[in-house]
């Protein structure tokens, strides 16, 4: 029995422990523990009276490559984080959800900071286009339900600032 334990059970146990803590196991590794977004700045959504309806910590994306990648392959864990897309000029914008595994709210914002429209509860992993209702210089992506949760509507304002 002792030889059996040493020859079969001990290596099998070692394999299971290594597998469980490895990159394919059920426990997160250090690489998987990275934050979903890079905290570059904050976005505040303002009601018509100027009070803050909601604040998001955002990753700011400004390059064509970063804008094309967006939140592909990432899942926002809560309603406190998102992504701010900044474009060179205000023009009609269209987004899709290709390779984006969870539903988002997309908030389209004009050059003056007013919300033009909101595409809420987008369809994950789809090529369906979600477009601005007019020229937009900024787009905020947040976890689906963000706009409903904080009562955000077209006509509200947005202000943002960099943290670094």
Kindly describe this structure:
It is a single chain. The chain is of the alpha+beta class and 164 residues long. It folds into two domains: 1-31; 35-162, Sandwich (Jelly Rolls). Helices cover 19% and strands 34% of the residues. It has helices at 2-21, 64-69, 146-150, and strands at 41-46, 52-61, 81-91, 94-95, 104-109, 115-119, 130-131, 136-143, 157-162. Strands 6-5-8-3-2-1-9 form a seven-stranded mixed β-sheet. A two-stranded antiparallel ribbon has the order 4-7. The N and C termini lie far apart (63 Å). Mean pLDDT is 85; it is low at 4-33.
Quick description:
The protein has 164 residues and is of the alpha+beta class. 19% of the residues lie in helices and 34% in strands.
Topology diagram in text:
Elements lengths: L1 H20 L19 E6 L5 E10 L2 H6 L11 E11 L2 E2 L8 E6 L5 E5 L10 E2 L4 E8 L2 H5 L6 E6 L2
Parallel strand pairs: 2-3
Antiparallel strand pairs: 1-2, 1-9, 3-8, 4-7, 5-6, 5-8
Q: Terminal Cα separation, in Å?
A: 63 Å
The CATH topology annotation of the largest domain reads as Jelly Rolls
- Overall structural class, as computed from helix and strand content, comes to alpha+beta
Q: What is the N-to-C order of secondary-structure elements (H for helix, E for strand)?
A: HEEHEEEEEEHE
Overall 3D shape: globular
By DSSP, the count of extended strands is 9
Number of domains: 2
Contiguous low-pLDDT stretches (5 residues minimum) are: 4-33
Shape-level CATH architecture of the largest domain: Sandwich
CATH hierarchy, class of the largest domain = Mainly Beta
Main sheet: which strands, in order across? 6-5-8-3-2-1-9
State the major sheet.
7 strands, mixed
């Amino acid at each position: 029995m002792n030889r059996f334990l040493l020859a079969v059970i001990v290596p099998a146990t070692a394999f299971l422990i290594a597998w469980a803590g490895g990159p394919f196991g059920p426990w997160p590794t250090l690489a998987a523990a990275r934050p979903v977004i890079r905290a570059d700045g904050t976005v505040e959504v303002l009601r018509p009276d100027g009070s803050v309806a909601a604040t998001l910590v955002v990753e700011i994306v400004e390059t064509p490559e970063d804008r094309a990648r967006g939140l592909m392959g990432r899942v926002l864990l809560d309603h406190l984080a998102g992504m701010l897309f900044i474009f060179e000029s205000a023009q009609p914008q269209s987004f899709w959800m290709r390779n984006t595994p969870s539903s988002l709210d997309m908030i389209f914002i004009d050059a003056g900071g007013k919300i033009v429209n909101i595409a809420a509860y987008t369809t994950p992993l789809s090529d369906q286009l979600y477009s601005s209702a007019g020229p937009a210089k900024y787009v905020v992506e947040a976890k689906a339900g963000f706009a409903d949760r904080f009562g955000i509507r077209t006509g509200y304002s947005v202000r943002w600032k960099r943290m670094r």
